[in-house]
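Exercise 3.2. Students should predict the tertiary structure of the chain below and write it as structure tokens, then compare their answer with the key that follows.

Predict this chain's 3D structure.
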Amino acid sequence: MTDYAGIEEILTTTLRLERRPVAVSFRDTAPTGVRKFTGTQPSGCSFWRLAAKGDVFYTEPSDHYNCPVGSYTHNIALPAEREQELPNVLSLMSDIGYIRMEEVGGIPRLPQTPAAIVYAPLAETPIDPDVVLVAGRPGHMMLFQEAATRAATSVAPMLGRPTCMAIPAALSGRLASSLGCVGNRIYTGISEDEFYVVVATSTLPSIVEQLSTIVSANAALTDYHTNRRATLATA
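Answer key:
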């Protein structure tokens, strides 16, 4: 398996991450040797918070029912007795001006319902993940995106709400950035000056390979632009 511990160390050091990158894996069957999540959470992205703190576990579709929007992006159908919760929350969001109902059809979704979703800190992932979520500050995430471009990874346009749609958006092999949404920020505790970059794991090693070049280039350009400002700025 890929040296995910080494990749996490590089990402954490180079991008000055304050929370651990999270590995997410979608499975057709429950994984062996991985703890089943017990308890409840209010949202699918709450599982990101647990994994970033060091937990390794898997969920089943029913663990996501409390989040109608997250269930929608993950192609998880709510049970009959709860299926009205999605239109109810969408109506609320529409009524207060948060969304327009016509936007819903354009939200990326997983192509099929996963039987199990494995969450773990990247360094401790028990299986090869499908995507990796990285949260950090703009100046550092800029380096990540520039490394992706240098690695010839397709970069999707910046996404907004809901944050969880960045996962299916990245699955096709692209790098997807998300400014986040208010629900995600409450449920995960991500700070106001951070946002997410989500990348398909198949492209991650090549992006990491380009990080040192991008960091060196930015250091050189910092000197270049600093000197130009000192020389040319008149006020």
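Discussion points: The chain has a mean pLDDT of 94. DSSP finds eight helices and six strands in the chain.
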